[in-house]
């Protein structure tokens, strides 16, 4: 029998990196009166760390529902969703809330900033859950706003900003806690072309330079082009 | 940026609505405190009752007199430490709108049994020396600009004639609950006049007041006193000072109960007003609460935000209402005929109830909107269009 050491040391076995997001046989349906409406049917999908995936499909195809499930703001009717090693289906509501605060950054179509808070305060909001002292929170929020090019708009309220600027504040709020994934639901849907380009460029930079994993739901083929990969949904199934 | 700041800013987001709600709460708190103060003033006699004093009156009615001869027999009852007596004189001073108690009392014993009337020793001695002397409360002295040596003329009604008294003492009330508006003169002066006129009131007093050794013995001593005069021409009824005052006030009891109930109904109404405001506010913020939840804020945080906003409004309104109550009570007191309520002040208990009501209203009004906000699913909240 040949000695394992006869031909010198054996090189260490390199296991392939597990995907950051594993979606296994996920289905989702909603109950409306006595009617069960299926939205997602037996979806399986893996997304690697550092990827930038665009989810496309017609209205009602289940894009946003899939995004919500991955982000832990909704629960599947069947199947498993594992993100960064955590099975989301096994977490209770408060565990899921804590998980979201650490791992997910949200970018919404209509920005969803709190109107009574300034840009800086809006960006600082997720940091209130981290236990960081106020000066550090402020510093992080300033840095995030600097990254998105709004260092000169710290004390502006949302109503004093343009749509594009509001969305950039929302991006700053999404990245300020350095989450594992960024989820964006039609982030350019409410913006003019120039602002949309600006936002997409920014998301692209975050993906390429900071290696943020991004999932973006979009109708816009131009926006989807910025992604590294495009997945299409139709009638609740990946096509 | 703390959540407190967000609560406060949310509370002021709709300034007009918040202002109207806070003013509504302020008016309700003002009405609550004013009503409570009136009820308290009405019951002040009961509240200031000493536990170790008994009142002996005619068994049929307070208006019938008792023989002066009862005094020594009452004094001999075991447990009785001191006996004094008084007569309700009434009379008119200046005009019929000047209300304050005018009573003939036993100069030697009255102030021993009522230590809450603080009279300087030299003034008390002067009062005892002079048959037509009187002692007046400090508020009466101030109200009518009376000082030691002044003559105080009264027109008698129960005891007809013109009576002139010389002010020989001014008492200070020991505490806020003590009536500072009494006028007290010697029963002996009244008796002397009755003898002179051969009145049927000669040798009679209105009621006896006894200081007893222990409040625990009130029942057996009362029974013992009444037993002394059972089957006599003037049977007695002896009861604690508190019970005596309560009986005295019972004629207006239902009005006072109604005012008491009203004061709490007002709190209930304003609770509904604030709850309505909070339900509207929370509904408008459905989308924002969902966004906060996506960021990782829990149901507890949302509950704190809704309850905090509600508390902001209720505390603001309560503080304004309490601040307005002080001048309102003073104005109310001035608007009433002088002496209507000898003791009229905002009790600490009333302030405590107002604060408690303010906080409770804030919390209770937040219950329904907070429950809705916390239990709403995030995806439904994000889809909500207000």
Give a written overview of the molecule.
Chain A is α/β, with parallel strands linked by helices and 239 residues long. Chain A has a single domain (49-73, 93-238), classed as 3-Layer(aba) Sandwich (Rossmann fold), CATH 3.40.50. Chain A is built from 7 helices and 10 strands. Chain A has helices at residues 63-70, 93-103, 119-124, 134-147, 163-175, 193-209, 221-224, and strands at 21-32, 35-47, 52-56, 78-83, 86-87, 104-107, 181-185, 213-217, 229-234, 237-238. A 6-stranded mixed beta sheet of chain A has the order 6-7-8-3-9-10. Chain A has a 4-stranded antiparallel beta sheet with strand order 2-1-4-5, with helices on one face. Chain B is of the alpha+beta class and 386 residues long. Chain B has 2 domains: 3-44 and 252-383, no CATH class; 65-233, no CATH class. Chain B is built from 15 helices and 12 strands. In chain B, helix 1 (3-11) crosses helix 13 (299-335), helix 11 (253-284) runs antiparallel to helix 13 and helix 11 packs parallel to helix 14. Chain B is elongated, with a radius of gyration of 29 Å. The two termini of chain B are 26 Å apart. Chain A binds chain B through residues 68, 71, 73-74, 93-94, 97-98, 100-102, 104, 106, 108, 112, 114-117, 120-121, 124-126, 128-129, 137, 173, and chain B through 1-3, 5-6, 9-10, 13, 287-288, 291-299, 377-379, 382.
